Description:
The complex is a heterodimer of chains A (93) and B (265). Helix content of chain A is 43%, strand content 20%. With 93 residues, chain A is α+β, with helices and mostly antiparallel strands. Chain A has one domain. In chain A, the strands form two sheets. A two-stranded antiparallel ribbon of chain A has the order 1-4. A two-stranded antiparallel ribbon of chain A has the order 2-3. The radius of gyration of chain A is 23 Å and the shape is elongated. Chain B is of the alpha/beta class. Chain B has a single domain, classed as Rossmann fold, CATH 3.40.50.300. Chain B has twelve helices and eight strands. Chain B has an eight-stranded mixed sheet, with helices on both faces. In chain B, β6 (137-142), α7 (146-161) and β7 (168-174) form a beta-alpha-beta unit. In chain B, α1 packs across α11 (225-237). The longest helix of chain B is centred in the middle third of the chain and has 16 residues, at 146-161. Chain A binds chain B through residues 14-17, 19-20, 22-24, 26-27, 30-31, and chain B through 145-146, 149-150, 153-154, 157, 179, 181-186, 189, 193.
Amino acid sequence: MDFLERLFGRRKPTSKIIAKERLRLVLVHDRASISPQVLDSLKEDMLDVISNYMEIDRRGTEVTLNSDKESVALIANIPVIGVVGRNKRGVRI
Amino acid sequence: MGEVIVVTSGKGGVGKTTTTANISTGLASMGKKVVMIDTDIGLRNLDVVMGLENRIVYDLVDVTRGDCRLRQALIKDKRFENLCLLPAAQTKDKTAVQPEQMRELCEKLKKEFEYVIIDCPAGIEMGFKNATAGAERALVVTTPEISAVRDADRIIGLLEAAELPNPLLIVNRIRPTMVKKGDMMDIDDMIDILAIDLLGVVPEDESIVVSTNKGEPAVLDMKSMAGQAYRNISRRITGEDVPLISMESEDGFLSKIKKFFGIQR
Lengths: 93, 265
Ligand SMILES: Nc1ncnc2c1ncn2[C@@H]1O[C@H](COP(=O)(O)OP(=O)(O)O)[C@@H](O)[C@H]1O
Ligand SMILES: [Mg+2]
């Protein structure tokens, strides 16, 4: 069988395998779905933590949930103005 | 004190009502005191599956409204006197029942019955909230189809949020020949994806249609494959350790059946 499969190229996947894969992907998305309110409070909490280390532009910050076919990622774009405890030239003060 | 078990699924038509009727009758045939509650208001069905449709006088809404006493609304089964049905209202307003009332009702019934089995409507709205409000354990019924398993996943999440953790899975309408051909998801696939323990597997079986036609649950038909599956599930609910029968495991199924509901009373 293995030999024949190699000879004639890969066998077509069974409908069960197709179903499983589609189900897996649809659940990745279902399970990662998050309400805008929750995303917003996540963003605020994250910015509070980062502010302990860096001076950031809170208004210019964007936090989104990005999903492509295979996976879901949390993307945060946070403009950094400076580092807390250093001057403009990066010298510790 | 009895145990309150809700039969859920998310998607409609996957076998909640069939499962409720069969496990309740199965438990009753083992001598347990059982009451079924049909919470599918407006789409009453458990009565016809049980063959009790001609005996209904009062319903769930009459009870929660206080228009009759609980005892008056409980319909005795034809076959087992230790089995009762509290039917759903057919024509009344869906919002007539509140979760708090269901909780009180279940508390009352628990004192008198060993098992309170609740047939949940499809969906995730009010009907689901009512059906789960007084429950202590949940069963999730699915079929081996993407849409049913997807909805089951959502329901499992909602059950966890409603503090009904560790629901157990019943896979219904499995067709071993299709599984073998690779044209149907097998049990392991579904357990893998849903990450919950299995309570049992029920095959696609014409005897379910025949028994529903007659109003006699298949669990009482000793020749029915689905009936055998429901007998095994009923025994597992009482805490018995019943291995999967070959029909259930034909597709190379290896996962362990959860030793059920450990707490024996
Ligand atoms: N294992 C089975 N084999 C064959 N038919 C089944 C099986 N389980 C359920 N059915 C049929 O599927 C239909 C839907 O079942 P039902 O229990 O009413 O689902 P639900 O309560 O989830 O909407 C019914 O007509 C029932 O007879
Ligand atoms: Mg139903």
